Amino acid sequence: MKKYLVDVYLPALGNHYDVYLPAGKRIGEAASLLSGIMASLSGGNFNSGADCVLINADDGKPMDYAMSVYDAGIRNSSSLILI
Predict the structure, then answer these.
(1) Between the CA of residue 11 and those of 3, 15, 19, 53, 68, what are the distances in Å?
(2) With contact defined as beta carbons under 8 Å apart, do 33 and 25 qualify?
(3) How are beta strands 15-22 and 54-56 bridged, if at all?
(4) What pTM did the predictor assign?
(5) CATH number of the domain bearing residue 31
């Protein structure tokens, strides 16, 4: 499965993380996965849960959770914000 290396920024912690996202995953599933990954990487300091929002950092718009990562235009080096 194709994966894209993306930059995810967590404003709550002020940190950027590089993460691989599978191209075929739905954005909603990817946001949930990212939430868990970020909680682990931050030592438990980030705890967004199911209500997290994934935002395209280029235009500031929330991602459509029904779209796939690929269909949402996410590619290698895309910048995302998780709040």
Answers:
(1) 24, 7, 16, 12, 24
(2) yes
(3) unpaired
(4) 0.90
(5) 3.10.20.90
Instruction: Give me 38's structure tokens.
Output: 């970020």
Q: How far is CA 41 from CA 14, 20, 76, in A?
A: 13, 14, 21
Q: Which residue has the tokens 């949402």?
A: 72
Cα–Cα distance for residue pair 59/79, rounded to 1 Å: 10
Q: Which residues contact 32 (CB under 8 A, 6 or more apart)?
A: 50, 52
What is the structure's pLDDT at 40?
86
Structural domain span for residue 25: 3-82
Q: What pLDDT shows up at residue 12?
A: 85
Distance CA 78, CA 24 (A): 16
Contact 69, 22 (CB under 8 A): yes
Cα-trace Rg, the chain: 11
Helix (H, G, I), strand (E, B) or coil at 55: strand
